[in-house]
Amino acid sequence: MKIAIAQLNPTIGDLTGNAQQIQAAAATAQSQGAHLLLTTELSLCGYPPRDLLMQPAFVDAMDRTLLQLAQDLPPQIAVLVGTVVPNHRSLQFGGKPLFNSTALLYGGTVQQQFHKRLLPTYDVFDEDRYFEPGSSSHTFELEGVRIGVTICEDLWNDENFWGKRNYATDPLNELVSQGAELIVNLSGSPYSVGKQVLREAMLRQATQTYGLPILYANQVGGNDDLIFDGSSVGLNRQGEIVCRAQAFASDLVLVEFDPISGDLQSGTIAPQPESEEAEIWAALVLGVRDYVRKCGFSKVVLGLSGGIDSSLVAAIAAAAVGADQVLGVLMPSPYSSDHSINDALALAENLGIQTQILPIGNLMKAYDQTFAELFAGTQFGLAEENIQSRIRGNLLMAISNKFGHLLISTGNKSEMAVGYCTLYGDMNGGLAAIADVPKTRVYSICHWLNQQTQIFPESRHRAGSIIPPNVLTKAPSAELKPGQVDQDSLPPYEILDAILCQFITLHKSPAEIVAAGYDSTTVDRVIKLVTRAEFKRKQAPPGLKITDRAFGTGWRMPIANRWLPTSHLPQPPVASSAMAMTSSVAPT
Fold first, then answer.
1. 421 given a catalytic annotation
2. Rounded Cα gap, residues 443 and 121, in angstroms
């Protein structure tokens, strides 16, 4: 029996378009002799639909689209489609109004429905907000083979793998007890660095524990801040990979199940990215491309400072939408160095993107004149420095408004963490492309990019590099006053990023971070900066998620709070971000 996996890139809410994708995949799979087609979790509406699920008209339209899709599909192939099913018992017995479900479409009708058992409610997941968990797991029979159906999280509860059981229910064990010969999983698993290695290890453990093959179909594409990497995979009973779809691209893969051996036969195995830098690059390019496309834009604009962050974002944008669709705007001030302008122009030439130079010196003078009386008797400081960033932000937003370009902001995760950014200035934009990329990782990606000749094959390289060499070697600076560098206000990025990883990603206490070898004064200062910058992050554009702990959907910190952990004994309460909105960590 041939089985196909349709690794789809749905647009949330585009029921007709998503159904057409499924129909096209089914037609192709059927023409190649497939008996069964797997799609991904909530493939009909796109994952995650979030509060669209609270609109009855949306749910009703999904049901109508599903019924029409069943009639439109080739009748010779069975198709598993991710959808939403109303919980009709909720009005009488309570519970949530919907199920996260999979529908089996075959012969023009909906043959069977399977409800997700385990509902994740952590990090970016909030499924308990909408869904009632299914009460039992079920199988279906096709071509004499009994197939067990699971949905995403249903497979993430293997006590042997995790060393504990995260849920009381074990859907996989129930399906085995029902005589399942093959397990299929429809998934919407967001990307983070190294995620596929974890997935395949978990699936390998499950196949070896139960002696059953597993087919795992994962969504691909960008939806708001989330990126889905695809990498759908099949493993045989021994835990060996027998097929794998491409990473970060739509794909259709076929594999054969042999009823006699009860196992999957080898199919096409797509390679995985060769490094974390390659992985992250592919994720960010896909995330930007889909955000631009799905939000109805065609062109993007960004500020080019000659620094490493804007250089990387410009390269990502050029790869995502095409160099001819990218406008880089240089906005030099009297404090801007010649090398910043030259480096920005060299980068633009290497990428082949358009540029526009808008000097801001006269605008700065106009602000000085406007504030002359009010600011009289005060010293030049953060307020005046931040005006430069806000002038630039206004200019970029004006270009966005005038020409309909999407403004992409260029701040990295290290800056977002400690508030080294300016509200209504460099934080302006519709998308923050590298907001989850630490500064040290920005450097490593740029070094990796300069070794890749196939990404921009037609570009004119200076010294053989996309990113100008001077960008990689000069000290990072916001250039808001003479001689300024980032390290005037922040610890060295190697130290800062290490502390941030310990505190934000690994949830280590200040005392534990100090015990790991970091200076207590520096640790306390960094954590204080993170806490006080919360109000800025709440007003930032969506940032593409590539780590396990991003400042986005899954980050739910309060702004007004008085909990400030330190590496020392408990101290009297210290005002947090809501009490410090007039202060700033740094010149930007």
1. no
2. 34
